[in-house]
Amino acid sequence: MNITSYFIGIALKNEYFSSLYKDLNEYSLNNRIENTIELQNNNSLHVTLYYLDKNISDEIDELRNDINMLKKNEKEYVLFIEENKYFKRNNQDFLSYLSIQNPHQLITIHDEISQKYKKNSIPDNHRLYIPHISLFKILDYEKFEKHREKVEQIAKYHIENLKVKNILNGFYVFAVDSTTKPETQIPIEI
Q1: For a tag site, which of 45, 103, 108, 133 has the least CB within 10 Å?
Q2: pTM assigned to the model
């Protein structure tokens, strides 16, 4: 793995998402839209809390303490999916994601981490924080529009089953490899 960055985030119970990704992948292959959408690596599902620098060696003890504190209080947190939404770029949908029910706890954690680590040089830390789980990137908007209804039906069917499951599987620092397609994010023990 070629580590290109790190972030603090929440690992998810990937087994809950396997049938969703299986159906999306089958649809993508059967309809030859694998170059139209890029599915998130279903072994790397997560919710990002805060982006870190490529080199975290100077902060490893502090990060370990913060992650351990979050893990100690983990029973206080629940994570449930709400619905499928899209982030836009240039007025077009470019990323399909699952929104989180009652995201206030995660926003509070994000804000506290942000105040502590102040990684202002990282562009993603300047965006409005919206807790989410990425489903897929839209690589070709016009082609995707022809398949949107069916893809959204697949997502909606599975989301209904996921809404009642606490998908939280722990707080971690994640290592990222942006050189792979799709990108790989792996929780690590520090």
Answers
A1: 108
A2: 0.91
